[in-house]
UniProtKB/TrEMBL annotation:
<feature type="domain" description="HTH lysR-type">
    <location>
        <begin position="6"/>
        <end position="63"/>
    </location>
</feature>
<keyword id="KW-0805">Transcription regulation</keyword>
<dbReference type="InterPro" id="IPR058163">
    <property type="entry name" value="LysR-type_TF_proteobact-type"/>
</dbReference>
<dbReference type="Pfam" id="PF03466">
    <property type="entry name" value="LysR_substrate"/>
</dbReference>
<keyword id="KW-0238">DNA-binding</keyword>
<dbReference type="GO" id="GO:0003700">
    <property type="term" value="F:DNA-binding transcription factor activity"/>
</dbReference>
<dbReference type="Pfam" id="PF00126">
    <property type="entry name" value="HTH_1"/>
</dbReference>
<dbReference type="InterPro" id="IPR005119">
    <property type="entry name" value="LysR_subst-bd"/>
</dbReference>
<dbReference type="GO" id="GO:0006351">
    <property type="term" value="P:DNA-templated transcription"/>
</dbReference>
<keyword id="KW-0804">Transcription</keyword>
<dbReference type="InterPro" id="IPR000847">
    <property type="entry name" value="LysR_HTH_N"/>
</dbReference>
<dbReference type="InterPro" id="IPR036390">
    <property type="entry name" value="WH_DNA-bd_sf"/>
</dbReference>
<protein>
    <submittedName>
        <fullName>LysR family transcriptional regulator</fullName>
    </submittedName>
</protein>
<dbReference type="GO" id="GO:0043565">
    <property type="term" value="F:sequence-specific DNA binding"/>
</dbReference>
<dbReference type="InterPro" id="IPR036388">
    <property type="entry name" value="WH-like_DNA-bd_sf"/>
</dbReference>
<comment type="similarity">
    <text>Belongs to the LysR transcriptional regulatory family.</text>
</comment>
């Protein structure tokens, strides 16, 4: 009968491969090697008399049976974490791998300076921190926790808004000194602007120009906010940046800040089936707390009031 006599610990290897799709990535998560991971997967499939993955040069893809097993394996993992928490205490239960995905701006200019201290205080956690120009899928297990500009459209997720933030139009001091003063929105429309590539805007929240300078088209386009920041610093012209990023660069000057600003939001999400796992809960609590403490800078309160 399938299921008799398999090693429960093999499920940890199964989950790691299911979440990463690669033996090498799973091995890094488990602090093992790809040969051991492959052997464990083969052994689990033999024990269950089931094929859990389709193998290809691109990696491992779950079969239909494998997809159904994932939820049960995750439930078992959570139960084990819960028992460990009861027996050993919360601190000891904080172990395992967490893949965290955030937008480039939030990750690189806000969270990246805070996360190392959190990681040092929680050495049992292996944090995989990704700052990307696209949205990773929680449903496909590309990430465990996600920060995004919008909540997921649908699905079994726990979702919460963790911050509002404001973006303004900026130009370098040297650029403004070379040109006549910008006194109106109409005059701002005459200046070159660095922004996102039109057909690579992966979230509606990144379509800043539609709201702040309708009808304006970026003459210098990049998929990276870091590259747009660099263009502004280099004196190309104007660029649209979150205040919490631009404030670190005194050579950037807000253009008509009382008139030319917009507001966006950050949303924190994780899958419902992972929400109560101690390792997930502590990271969510950390991000929520850090975002709340930074509210004044997110909202540009030093120069703008509600």
């Amino acid at each position: 009968m399938p299921g008799i006599g398999f090693d429960w610990d093999d499920l940890r290897y199964f989950l790691a491969v299911a979440q990463t799709g690669q033996l090498s990535s799973a091995a890094r998560r488990l602090r093992s090697n790809h040969v051991t991971v492959s052997r464990r997967i083969d052994r689990l499939e033999q024990s269950l008399s089931l094929r859990l993955f389709e193998r290809s040069p691109r990696g491992y893809t779950l079969t239909g049976v494998g997809e159904r097993l994932v939820a049960h394996a995750q439930a078992m993992e959570q139960t084990a974490d819960g028992l460990h928490e009861i027996i050993s205490g919360e601190a000891a239960a904080l172990r395992g791998v967490i893949r965290l995905s955030t937008p480039e701006g939030f990750g690189s200019f806000f969270l990246s300076s805070r996360l190392p201290d959190f990681a040092s205080r929680n050495p049992g956690l292996l944090i995989e921190f990704m700052t990307l120009q696209q949205i990773l899928s929680l449903s496909r297990r590309e990430a465990d926790i996600s920060v995004a500009l919008h909540p997921p459209a649908a699905g079994p997720y726990q979702v919460e808004k963790i911050a509002r933030y404001r973006l303004l139009v900026y130009a370098s001091r040297s650029y403004l000194e070379r040109h006549p003063p910008i006194r109106s929105r109409a005059e701002a429309m005459e200046h070159p602007l660095a922004g996102y590539i039109d057909d690579m805007i992966f979230a509606p929240g990144l379509d800043y120009l539609r709201d702040i300078l309708p009808g304006k088209r970026a003459g210098y386009q990049s998929s990276s906010i870091i590259a747009q920041l660099a263009a502004g610093l280099a004196g190309y012209g104007m660029t649209i940046l979150p205040y919490f990023i631009a404030r670190a660069y005194p050579q950037l000057v807000p253009v008509l800040p009382q008139e030319l600003h917009i507001e966006r939001e950050y949303w924190l999400s994780c899958r419902e089936d992972l929400a109560d796992a101690p390792r997930i809960r502590v990271v969510r609590d950390f991000i929520r707390s850090e975002a709340a403490a930074f509210e004044e800078m997110f909202m540009a309160r030093p120069i703008l009031q509600d």
